[in-house]
């Protein structure tokens, strides 16, 4: 698995001039929500003209936007569950997780 799942370099066109970075990316990359894009921008994975950017940055025609979407990290389950007569309880989990019935 690579460190980046998706990497793209985009150029701002005339239609994108004056638009917020997060809105422009949401329009340019329809598979990602604007909230997800804002988180990716805040984490520093989006650069405009080689510099880290804020979601509220107003774009100018001709600017270069580098987009690096980090590879998803697998979710670590907090508890594998099983049923008992009294409800749900944890039968196996990470160290330190309390088991109760």
Strands in their spatial order, largest beta sheet? 1-4-2-3
Element order: H for helix, E for strand:
EHHEEEEE
Report the span from N to C terminus.
39 Å
- Unreliable stretches (pLDDT < 50, length at least 5) are none
Please report which band the strand proportion falls in: under 5%, 5-15%, 15-25%, 25-35%, 35-45% or over 45%.
25-35%
Give the averaged pLDDT, no decimals. Answer: 80
Largest sheet: 4 strands, antiparallel
**Count the helices. How many?**
2
Protein structure class: alpha+beta
Using only CA atoms, what is the Rg? 21 Å
Q: How many strands in all?
A: 6
Q: Name the helicity range.
A: 10-25%
Q: Which word captures the global form? A: elongated
What does the model show?
The protein is of the alpha+beta class. The protein is 17% helix and 31% strand. The protein is built from 2 helices and 6 strands; from the N terminus they run βααβββββ. The chain has helices spanning 21-28, 34-42; strands at residues 4-11, 46-48, 51-52, 64-70, 80-84, 87-92. The strands form 2 sheets. The chain has a 4-stranded antiparallel sheet. A two-stranded antiparallel ribbon has the order 5-6. β5 (80-84) and β6 form a beta hairpin. α1 (21-28) packs across α2. The protein starts with a strand and ends in a 9-residue tail after the last strand.
């Amino acid at each position: 698995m690579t460190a980046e799942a998706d990497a793209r370099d985009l150029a701002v066109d005339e239609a994108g001039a004056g638009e917020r970075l997060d809105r422009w990316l949401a329009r340019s990359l329809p598979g990602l929500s604007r909230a997800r894009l804002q988180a990716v921008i805040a984490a520093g994975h989006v650069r405009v003209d080689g510099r880290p950017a804020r979601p509220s940055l107003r774009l100018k025609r001709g600017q270069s936007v580098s987009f690096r979407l980090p590879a998803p990290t697998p979710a670590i389950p907090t508890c594998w569950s099983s049923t008992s007569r009294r409800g749900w309880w944890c039968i196996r989990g990470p160290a330190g997780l309390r088991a109760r019935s």
